[in-house]
Specification:
Blueprint: H1 2-12, E1 25-28, E2 36-42, H2 45-53, E3 58-63, H3 75-86, E4 90-93, H4 96-100, H5 106-111, E5 117-125, E6 128-141, H6 142-152, E7 158-160, E8 166-172, H7 181-186, E9 191-194, H8 201-208, E10 211-214, H9 223-236, E11 239-242
């Protein structure tokens, strides 16, 4: 069952189509039989301990533990993976493919919150567009968009409102994607929404007179993993749970 689930997700999210710093797929091998799956945004010892305590045999996350470099299994990293190894718990991670997926991904889920039209790919990442942009049928007040963000993503977003007060177009890329702001500016998009800010975007927003919202790395990336949970639960008829660690960053 573990291998069947892994193959299904790998193919569904087309992981081979993406160049990614994270390893996508099965990161830690545990029991081959899967009966109960825990879903979370980011793997941590807290997640591992919770899974072990509550008899989960598999964990599926957006942020796993393998990021394209070797590291010694010592210190914090050793403690982090101990619950997996001691209890034979599988760990699967899906990073950029889960951001980019046009059906259940983080970015399509984000842009659909705003009832915009003409949704098209945006944001080049190593040859693939992983975000989305859209236009409104009628201009929408920036304050109205901010209320949607506060209701659905983060109660305390960082808002750099140096641009238009009535928004015709917006683009989104979840997580730590401040680097895509310049692409939004070049495409004359009125508002760019991401998760984490970078120091330089303040002046970039002011100088370009473009609006920028950072709504939290965690907050912008709960959607994809929850959608994946629903997909797996329905397809494989398994017990699942999403553990919200309520990360404010």
């Amino acid at each position: 069952m573990r291998d069947k689930i892994t193959r299904f997700i790998n193919e569904y999210l087309k992981i081979r189509d993406f160049a990614d710093s994270s390893f996508n797929g099965l990161q830690v091998e545990g029991k081959s039989e899967v009966k109960k799956i825990l879903f979370a945004v980011s793997y941590s010892k807290t997640i591992g301990d919770y899974a072990a305590k509550n008899d989960f045999d598999t964990i599926i996350v957006h942020h796993g533990i393998l990021w394209g470099k070797e590291q010694p299994i010592t210190g914090i990293f050793k403690k982090r993976i101990e619950p997996l190894l001691k209890n034979e718990i599988n760990l699967l991670g899906y990073h950029i493919p889960l951001d980019a997926d046009p059906r259940i991904g983080n970015n399509i889920s984000l842009i659909k919150l705003f009832t915009a039209k003409n949704i098209t790919p945006f944001g080049d990442y190593k040859g693939k567009k992983i975000g989305f942009k859209a236009v409104f049928k009628k201009p929408v007040e920036l304050n109205e968009i901010m209320e949607t963000v506060k209701k659905n993503i983060s109660k305390n977003p960082l808002v750099l409102n140096f641009g238009k007060k009535k928004i015709n177009s917006l683009a989104v890329v979840s997580g730590g994607a401040s680097s895509f702001f310049e692409q939004a500016i070049c495409e004359k998009i009125d508002l760019y929404i991401t998760g984490e800010p970078a120091e330089h975007v303040f002046e970039l927003a002011r100088e370009s007179e473009t609006n920028f919202i950072a709504a939290g790395h965690y907050g912008t990336e709960v959607f994809g993993i929850k959608n994946l949970q629903n997909l797996i639960r329905k397809k494989f008829k398994l017990k699942t749970e999403f553990l919200d660690t309520q990360n404010p960053i």
